[in-house]
Amino acid sequence: MKIEFTNNEAYQLIKLxxxxxxxxxxDDLPEEIESAFDKIQDxxxxxxRKVETAQAKQxxxxxx
Length: 64
Fold this sequence. Notes:
Elements: H1 7-22, H2 31-57
């Protein structure tokens, strides 16, 4: 299964995951839910790294 999220949707899901973790509510949920949140967070991190790498490759203006 493949589900695509917007950047904002992924951000909001990660915030929800953090909130559940901070409130120690993950223990009450099935492992599959925690695994799904981990996958979303991992993909968000990978995406951010790709964006940062692409931005670093862009030429910067030289001011003389």
